[in-house]
Amino acid sequence: MKYTILLLSLCVMILVSCHLSKAAKAMPAEVAPDWVPWVIKYERSPCFGDCPVYVFYLLDDNNGLIEVKRNLLEPGWYQAPLDQEAVHEIIMDIEPLSWWNENLREQPEIADLPVTSILYKHKDGLRRCVVQNRISNQVADVFQKMEHLVSEARWVLTNDRPLEPNLPEPTDVIVQLKEGIDIQLWMKKYDRFGIRLKKRVAPNQQYYVVTKDADQGSSNDFFQYIKLDEEVIDAQWDATLSPRE
After folding, report:
1. 3-state SS of the chain: helix, strand, coil percent to 5?
2. Per-residue pLDDT tens for 11-24?
3. CA pair distance 53, 56, nearest whole angstrom
4. CATH match for 172-241 among 3.30.70, 3.40.50, 3.30.1490, 3.40.640
5. pTM of the predicted structure, to 2 decimals
């Protein structure tokens, strides 16, 4: 009799277990994400070694959100509170417009420098900086502070996701050519980008606004080639084309 009761109890437990298993499988695989606004987006690309690869967001509330791709944590999305003094210091460093327009052409090339970019929703317009194979001490200092902020945070898995603004790649560049350089002849070097002249900024000076075809080549390649051009004194994105959302 006891054996029969024990057997019946075991059958009931198996049936309940099967029911719970089916119920768990029936649950939705993914929960809808919570979309959060951000102020700064900092992205590190792969290098030849074991560089961390991630996209970090400083949110509107000064907390952090990160998408880890490799060599930091397990791939996924994480959030964390941040060191507020460190956040304030970074924002103060990148506040001047001069930080974004620094000429890196005189800096030495670094072979295995990962492509790194920072996007800032400044109150006066969207600001971008992309570093490929040259970097200055001023830019490197901010990037190191950003990476220290990321490495010191206590990340936990999250369902938060960044609200991505609908931002087209920039196409307009303000360029200063050396004296005696003909703008029309100079532009022929960049025909593959669909370059065209928008306007001359000053009638008696070599300042021009040029633009590329949005469908021809990378905006970053276009900009970097111009900055490295021996006939160019200086170049910068036309910031007026990128209003903050």
Report:
1. 35, 30, 40
2. 434 333 343 333 33
3. 10
4. 3.30.70
5. 0.61
CB neighbour class for 13 (10 Å; exposed up to 12, middle 13-18, buried from 19): exposed
* Cα gap 245→239, rounded to integer Å: 14
Phi-psi region of 180 (alpha: psi -120 to 50; beta: other; left: phi over 0): left
* CA quadruple 157, 159, 165, 168: dihedral, nearest 10: 70
34-162: CATH number: 3.30.1560
Where does CATH 3.30.70 sit in the chain? Answer: 172-241
**Could you report the per-residue pLDDT of 125-175, keeping only the tens digit for each?**
888 888 877 899 999 999 999 999 999 999 999 999 998 766 677 899 999
Beta strands 38-44 and 53-59, pairing class: antiparallel
